[in-house]
Amino acid sequence: MIHFTYRMIDETRAEIETIFNIEPPQEVMVRCVTYDGNELPSPDNLPTGKGFKRFYIPSTNKFEFELIDIPLTPDEKIAQLEQQLKITQDALDALLLG
After folding, report:
1. Domain that includes residue 19, residue range
2. For the chain, what is the domain count?
């Protein structure tokens, strides 16, 4: 079981503040929602350079996700630049070599 706290950000959506993988302290437990699972849902197949914010909808007991930009790791940046370089080189070769 997972426990989490949240704060309402508008009339229907709440931003998840704290996630507990163990039983939280009793003073926090009164503010927790218990989710029956090993982990909270997450979006599938995140594109490179994207993360997500997880929102809880108390009226339906469901989750929503909002994609956010995150900086590329050095390895991801190198891979991106190598891919762009290959595309540029292939275009130049096609122009020069016909």
Report:
1. 2-71
2. 1
CA distance 98 to 94: 5
Higher local confidence (pLDDT), 12 or 41:
12
Q: Is residue 95 a part of any domain in this protein?
A: no
- Paired tokens of 35: 């989710």
**Exposed (0-12), middle (13-18) or buried (19+): which is 52, by Cβ within 10 Å?**
middle
| Residue located via tokens 């009793």 | 26
Q: Per-residue pLDDT for 60 more than 80?
A: yes
Structure tokens at 76: 């991801």
Instruction: Specify the pairing of strand 2-8 against strand 33-35.
Output: antiparallel
Rounded percentage of the chain residues whose pLDDT exceeds 70? 100
